[in-house]
Amino acid sequence: MAVVGFDVGFQSCRVAAVKDGGVETVPDEFTERSTPAVVSFGPRSRSVGTAARHQIISNPGSTVCNFKRLHGRFFRDPVIQAERAGLPYDLVPLRDDGDDGIVGAKVMYLEKEHQFTIEQVTAMLLTKMKDTAEASLQKKVAECVISIPSFFTDSERRSVLDAAKIAGLNCLQLMNDTTAVALSYGIYKEDLPDPSEKPKIVFFVDMGHSALQVSACAFNKGKLKVLATAFDPYLGGRDFDQRLVEYFCAEFKTKYKLDTKSRVRAVLRLWQECEKLKKLMSSNSCDIPLNIECFMDDKDVMGKINRAKFEELCADLIERVTAPLVAAVEQAQVQLQDISAVEIVGGATRIPAVKAQISRFFGRDVSTTLNADEAVARGCALQCAMLSPVFRVRDFSLTDVTPFPISLSWSCGGDEAISCHEIFGKNETLPSSKVITFHRNKPFVLEVFYSDPGSLPFPEAKIGEYKVQCVQAQEKGEKTKVKVKVQVDGSGVMSVTSATVVMRVSSVDTEAELGENDTEEVIIQDGQDDSETQDKTQEINDHAQVQLDKQTTVKCPCSDKDPNLAHALRAPNGDPNSQPPYAKKAKMKIRHVAVPIEEKKTPQLTEDCLNTFIGLENQMIQRDQQEKERNNAKNAVEENVYFYRHKLEGPYRPFLSPDDQQKFTELLDLVESWLYDEGADQDMQTYLHKLAEIHKLGLPVKDRYQESVKRPKMFEELAAKIHKYKAVMEDFANGSENYSHIDEPDMEKLRVCVKATHDWLTTMKHCQEILNPEDQPAVHSTQIYEKLQTLVNVCEEVVSKPKPRVDSPDEDIMQVDHNSKKSPDSVTMEYDDILQNVEDCS
Ligand code: ATP
Ligand code: MG
Predict the structure, then answer these.
(1) Chain-centroid distance, C-alpha 728
(2) DSSP assigned state of 557
(3) 403-567+584-605 and 626-806 in the same fold
(4) Fold of 403-567+584-605
(5) DSSP class of residue 176?
(6) Fold observed for domain 4-235+320-398
């Protein structure tokens, strides 16, 4: 079982795996170390990654790229609308949720229009990365950790987790990009200060294709604490490409009178060329030419640019690099002089002006000790190994932070007054949970939202709504104490994980058994009533005080289906309002009874929806597999046509008659023409039939040729063995000391076998010699091998019989020597060697 890390980038993705005590980046089938984040849909199948990238220009309407930022958003979202304007494929609203739907990509697939949610598209990408890992590691991927930008909100994070589920992945955690980088950096560092000392402060800056992220981290031996994260979600390499595209569009308009933006393919080609220019300018400051043949209207276009001009075009973008750096330093509350290192990763930090801007701000050279492209995936793989029970990793504690403050609101009592409390502050440690105590006499609703909508790169501040159910008044109308546990988990996903009503029950109430999620604590009644009388609505307790870690349940325990809780909520006589007769007994129990919570988060794929998508993904995987097999069968037909044509003109020629040669050549010509015509697009069975037709004529010829190479060697081998055992017979007849311990009957067995084999060999050699090469051979090499094996088995049993033990040291040596004869296994090895040689020379 393998544990892997997936860096799902906006432009390209990486797979890393923990292997042989280290972390390795896993290459794909084209030996590429990155997988382009592209999924292309065709009339017969879909392609993902490197194969799909080639379709961006030839099949733009059905090739989905640049989709990472579409996660977890409604179609009406301004980010979706802005992205949509620049995408070559169409985005549409799906699964209408009242006034709007979630976003999906509209493509042509299997010659029909299809709409896929972004979760499905990312799942396709993840499926590909999983296959890449499994093919390379030759192991099933058991668990994974997936990277996300640190500024992803709850909805975007859940959307990525849904994608992992659709891909059939067990995602142990989502990990912020820069936290993964920090882990890759820190886990191998030997020179970190002791936990009691001042930590080493390192800043990590990751500028990818779509965003800039910064994190401030504190390292001690075996410990990484993220202090703060800051970002510009709208500043990445693609913004620099865009400036170049705009520049050349304007130039082509004046120079060639071309309206580039009116043609999708022209714009896409220009983007690709501009990205190449940008990369070239990172290492060259001189003029770099841009030449595109047949750009538009059969016109070739030319242009040039240099780094100085590029920096002038992008001056404001370069300026924007500073703001997140300032924010990270401020939030981490560190002085620039306390920073030990600034590590940069992400492809766009290779732009010299970006690097210089970061350097200038920190007043120091930036470090590039990490692999700029692979550090995120490697960090994810390490985290996965740390979380997975499959691996043992050195102890290393890691705490991340919440990017945005989260608040909770609820209505207080009967009137409409709303109470609100910030439960997780900005940069609060992750994972984290809080328990809030309410006093209520009926079900109530908690609303969770981001407290500072202005700082969100997301239009919706609301995260979700949680209805705490089955709460009712206690005896004499007293309010019930309800403890609600709120959590932000390691993936940064917020949830209300449990709600329990706190009840006092008599210890003699033995019939009320505990439900699966209930707990009990015994208290000694001191005559004082524990229930508070004033309307104290909240107590935020320390996490350590939480005794329960309950799972959210959606089953209503008040129904007859859950007698435990129904019973617990009532007095033993079944009347919820009646006073239990033994309530005054000294020994009481406090019972924490789990009540159900109804969660509503939007946008959210329902369980049914997810199951449908999982089924669809599996169907598509199967279809891809069938298409792969169909293509393989077609390629096999083509390859065999060329193989036999080539061999018939060379080594196979003597092994078939002129008539057969003509027949076979005609068949090959026919199949070749068929392949380019009617046979260009057939089902797998048709190709397999064609292949069988070729093999029917080809395999006997191939076999005769291969036999002609193997047979003499096998004859030789058999003759050598016969010769060897004849020598033994002769030594025995001459009274050699070596064989004096062998009985005459045993030696007779050997003689008979050697003679029979010798006669067989002579006959077979003769039969074969009188045949022509195109005739069926008289004997097959496998038959010679069988003879050889029988001979060796019979004779070795006799000659390897141990001599009776004699105390002379000399004889001991002889004994050892005598027994060191080749075992029958060695025959197999020699034979295999021969086979190997024949394959090579055919
Ligand atoms: P994100 O992190 O935003 O999700 P990503 O992880 O796909 O995106 P990276 O692979 O880190 O992004 O970086 C890709 C970006 O880096 C592209 O814009 C690419 O053009 C740019 N880039 C790569 N090499 C160079 C270079 N030598 N000079 C300038 N830019 C480069
Ligand atoms: Mg990235």
Answers:
(1) 64
(2) T
(3) no
(4) Substrate Binding Domain Of DNAk; Chain A, domain 1 (2.60.34)
(5) E
(6) Nucleotidyltransferase; domain 5 (3.30.420)
3-class DSSP assignment, residue 351: coil
Q: Residue 463 corresponds to which tokens in the numbers above?
A: 């995260």
Ligand 2 centroid – CA 139 distance (Å): 26
- Residue ID of nearest Cα to ligand 1 atom 28: 279
Residues with CB under 6 A from ligand 1: 9-12, 68, 208-211, 236-238, 275, 278-279, 282, 346-348, 350-351, 373
Alpha carbon of 333 to ligand 2 centroid (Å) = 26
Residue range 605-633, pLDDT digits in tens: 999 999 999 999 999 999 999 999 999 99
Average pLDDT for 225-239: 97
Task: Give the CA distances from residue 646 to residues 273, 640, 655, 668, in Å, rounded to whole numbers and listed in that order.
Answer: 41, 10, 14, 11
Residue nearest to atom 18 of ligand 1 (CA): 237
Q: pTM of the entire structure?
A: 0.81
Q: How far is residue 267 from each of residues 106, 290, 544, measured CA to CA in Å?
A: 20, 14, 57
State the CATH architecture for 237-319. Answer: Alpha-Beta Complex (3.90)
Sheet with 587-594, edge to edge strand ranges: 519-524, 587-594, 494-506, 480-488, 432-440, 540-541
pLDDT band (50, 70, 90) for residue 473: confident
For residue 281, give the ligand 1 atom closest to its CA. Answer: 28
For residue 649, the CA-to-ligand 2 centroid distance in Å is 54
pLDDT per position as a tens digit, 264-279: 999 999 999 999 999 9
- In the structure encoding, which two tokens stand for residue 238, read together? 């693609």
The CA distance from 362 to 369, in Å, is: 17
- For ligand 1, pick from 279, 283, 311, 357 the residue to mutate: most ligand atoms within 8 Å of CB: 279
Site to substitute for ligand 1 among 15, 209, 376, most atoms within 8 A of C-beta = 209
Omega prior to 88 cis, within 30 of 0: no
How far, in Å, are 112, 280, 618 from residue 612 at the CA level?
A: 19, 46, 10
pLDDT tens figures, 385-409: 999 988 888 889 999 999 999 999 9
Other Cβ atoms within 10 Å of 692 Cβ, number: 10
What phi and psi values does residue 8 have, to the nearest 5 degrees? -95, 100
The distance of Cα 22 from the centroid of its chain, to the nearest Å, equals: 18
Q: Which two tokens stand for residue 288?
A: 């770099």
The atom number, within ligand 1, closest to the CA of 282 reads 28
Cα 279 to averaged position of ligand 1 atoms, centre (Å)? 9
Radius of gyration for the alpha carbons in the chain, expressed in angstroms and rounded? 38
Q: What is the distance in A from the centroid of ligand 1 to the CA of 213?
A: 13
Ligand 1 centroid distance, CA of 348 (Å) = 5
- DSSP class of 538: -
- Please give the CATH architecture assigned to the domain spanning 626-806: Up-down Bundle (1.20)
Task: For a ligand 1 pocket test, name from 278, 358, 376 the mutation site with the most ligand atoms within 8 angstroms of its C-beta.
Answer: 278
- Token digits of residue 638: 């083509």
Cβ-based burial of 297 (10 A; exposed 0-12, middle 13-18, buried ≥19): exposed
Distance from Cα 352 to the centre of ligand 2, integer Å: 18
Return the ligand number nearest the Cα of 283: 1
Q: Is the pLDDT of residue 95 over 50?
A: yes
In the chain, what are the domain boundaries?
A: 4-235+320-398, 237-319, 403-567+584-605, 626-806, 812-841
Query: Rounded CA gap, 7 and 183, in Å?
Result: 14
Residue nearest to atom 9 of ligand 1 (CA): 208
pLDDT at 439 over 90: no
Per DSSP, the residues of 612-653 read HHHHHHHHHHHHHHHHHHHHHHHHHHHHHHHHHHHHHTTTTG
One-letter amino acid of 85: A
The closest residue, in CA terms, to atom 22 on ligand 1 is 347
